[in-house]
Specification:
two-stranded antiparallel sheet; alpha/beta; globular; 5-stranded parallel beta sheet; 7 strands
């Protein structure tokens, strides 16, 4: 469970401000669906071009991911799911739809669901047009790390092929589709500075 720092609003009393249990609050509940392109463990529909027979891995079964996310959802936490490969995104979207449908079956109203924080999809690195249309209909927010492009651009086509590379790193397309985007550094995997992410998103070039 990730803890989000809670900055105290000015209207709180001195007693409330001194309460140590207000220092942090429960935020999102993170799950992993797959690995990374760099390690050839991001889950793809078909084989890696440079590693025939390997489609990556799902680190959790689709059924268990859906149940895990729903347990967090029922407790009022925001499910946040790491997914990079195209198959992993499909599995994650299946799980989001399961949470919404099961919530209604368990007595939640559409109004209650509308008040919940959106499902966070972390990375969302590969998405076909059909997946984007599907996301437009769901309460999701995409948590992106543009600096990955600077790292991956020199080898990604050799790894997954030109066709799949063309539907990867589609941040402008996401934005034009009306999807809600946020950004992160993915530190300590990548440097902490937000500026290199902004540069990568805008320039879509390496640092040279």
């Amino acid at each position: 469970v990730c803890l989000d720092y809670l900055f105290e609003p000015e209207h709180l009393t001195a007693e409330q401000r001194s309460d140590p249990y207000r220092a942090a609050r429960m935020g999102s509940f993170k799950s992993f669906s797959d690995g990374s392109l760099g390690s050839r463990s991001a889950k793809l529909y078909t084989d890696y071009v440079d590693d025939p027979g390997n489609t990556g891995i799902l680190v959790i079964s689709p059924e268990d991911l859906a149940k895990r996310m729903y347990k967090a959802y029922r407790h009022g936490l925001q499910p946040a799911t790491h997914c990079i490969g195209d198959k992993a995104l499909e599995v994650t979207l299946d799980a989001v739809e399961y949470c919404l449908e099961q919530g209604l079956k368990d007595g939640m109203t559409p109004e209650e669901q509308a008040k919940r924080l959106p499902f966070r999809i972390i990375h969302a690195q590969m998405a076909t047009d059909e997946m984007i249309e599907r996301m437009k209909k769901l309460p999701v927010v995409l948590d992106l790390q543009p600096v990955f492009l600077e790292t991956d651009m020199h080898w990604v086509s050799q790894r997954i092929g030109e066709e799949r590379a063309a539907y990867s790193y589609r941040w402008n397309t996401y934005q034009k589709a009306g999807l809600v985007l946020t950004g992160g550094s993915d530190s300590p995997v990548e440097p902490f500075s937000p500026w290199i992410n902004i540069y990568s998103a805008v320039a879509r070039k390496d640092f040279d």
